[in-house]
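Our preliminary data section would be incomplete without showing what the modeling component actually yields. Below, a chain of 321 amino acids is followed by its predicted structure, encoded as tokens that our downstream tools consume directly.
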Amino acid sequence: MIQNMLSGRKSNITFQTFLSGMPSRDYVFQQTPYEEQIRQAAKMLKEADYILIGAGAGLSTAAGLTMGGARFTENFKEFIEKYDGPYMRDMYSAGFYPFPSEEAKWGYWSKNGMVNRVLPGVLPLYKKVYRLAENKRHFVLTTNVDYQFFLCGFDEKNVFATQGDYGRIQCRKGCHPKTYDAIKMFQQMDQAREGCMVPSYMVPKCPVCGGPMEMNLRCDQYFVEDDAWHEAEKRFGEFLGECEEKKTVLLELGAGFNTPTIIRFPFEKLMRVHKNMSLIRLNLDEAVIPASFGERAVGINADMGKSIGDLLEEVSGHDER
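Predicted structure:
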């Protein structure tokens, strides 16, 4: 099926057939001056029929949702003091801490959900990304789990968040294919938490098997892909099918080499097969581009907040500062 998808023949594209583990062999940092890169990328966007956005953690980091540093130490001071050790370096590592009880685990994850999903609101950088794509047929593929694409203006029918959502929970063993909204629960836990723990009566139980619940984040084989996930996957496949015959820009934002098989490598594979596609890769440190893509690709190795702002200004013709 993957060969059909990447040979120009329309097929039933799924998330699994889209994935790719094959890196390019001719990466280079482009030497084109920054201002010229911005103009070239803006021209691609203005001339495009379709825009496929692929967004990784680098975008949320640039938008302000950093996992470590002051944001971690200020929000999780009590957890750092109580559970001092190698896990308490940042919010990502802390999620793997072997908490001694369900009360302690949900003490941490309710705080995490508040800090990364409930309290931030829509971030300005994400609104700029929306403005880059709003006047074109577009779709978003993202590994980010902070819900920002749904908040900033994108129609939920045009977003496929493959790795889950900080605001939803599931059965730890995935005993049934359903996830549950946990926002109200996190808010209540945040009010009741004492000593980094929530009261026992607040610990969620699976409504089907009675077992423990877990965050709906892809970390093992028990990750639940519910009906909404599969519907988004289907819409993503349909969009890719349309792209095969349209002038399409692959706008890659902060997708590095941590999980390159989901966005970076598949985008490169699409570029190798479909000559009607072009690639704009924004990444602070890893905007290397296959040299063989020539003028069909722009790799902007700069601060993403500035790059997106400059790109929007060039596309819209207005000062976006």
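The chain has two domains: 2-62+123-163+226-316, 68-119+165-217. The two ends are 45 Å apart (CA to CA). Preliminary results of this kind motivate Aim 1 of the renewal.
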